[in-house]
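Before a colleague's protein record goes any further, I have to sign it off. My question to you is simply how this chain folds and whether the tokens agree. I do not need a full report, just your reasoning and any doubts. This is what I was given:
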Amino acid sequence: MIERATLGGLEFEYDTERGNIRMGGHPAIFIWTESTLAGLISGLQRMVGTDRFRLALHGGGRDGVADDWAYISQFPTFEQGFAALVHVAATFGWGRWELVSLDDQAQRAVVRVHHHWEANIQKVLDVSWGSSYLGGKFAGIFQRHFGVAQCWAEQVAFVTNGDEYDEFVITPSNASLEDRLERMLATDDATRADLAVALERVRKEVEERVEAEQRLLEKLDLIARQEDAIRALATPIIEVWDGVLTLPLVGVIDSQRAADMMGRLLEAILQKKAGYTIIDLTGVELIDTSTAEHLLRLVLAAEMLGARCIITGIRPAIAQTMVSIGVELSRLTVLATLRDGLTYCIDQTRKPGRAAPGR
């Protein structure tokens, strides 16, 4: 449902279903000055500090006068247009404006404001920041009227300090708002303090990240050592007799485990000067073609170092796999159990006049 009303020559349109208001054809809101708006303004001031807050409001007022200037420009003279804008401002609750003087040749204007919302908020908050947003609006309007790059509205009277009105003197300025902000940041103790706090926060964050990285590296090192221990436990190489090593295999043998197993076994053969190696498959139920090939390479590599390999504990399924891939089992020394393999190796080393392979 849409309701319409006219106040001060302006049409107000209420769309109660959507919860919208339009004033003079433009979207608008109604807001409580002494509670909602005061809370918003004071929150912003606490975040950025009074000086930066005032500059920000001045800039916001200056940059938001496009519609005001378009309205003024509809009238034959600036004075007539500004007088009409004064009426609109009063209708919208912006207080009562008064153009005290205007000197186009000197490019100087003086404007007074009674009962403005910025001053009312400051009374509620018991502060005196000045009406910077309204000052910025006047600066933007007279900047266009004087045809200059920028104007500044200097507030010379303050309702919050006991004056009857807020008064602004508007003149061209060589310093832009951005210049003023840069100078303020260069000398603002609060800004330097903020920077110091920010740098300290960054320093702490860097230290925390370094500590976290160090802890992570320590954990990775621990994991690596644990993996080495697990691999050693998964593939133990035991010297069961002088010159006789045994390698009991359990579980699945993949490419990574086979490579690790070969490296550790060959190193142990060299260190122990072993002449025999028993590879026991009792704990392996099944092998695939790839695993069988890994075992054959392991046997060949060990024998190239002079250690004869004995295979024990082959299950029927494993034997079938080896036959299916063309492994000539007659070329291998294959015994039923680890005990048989150990007995065989001991007997070989004890035969008169026969030295163990690799010795």
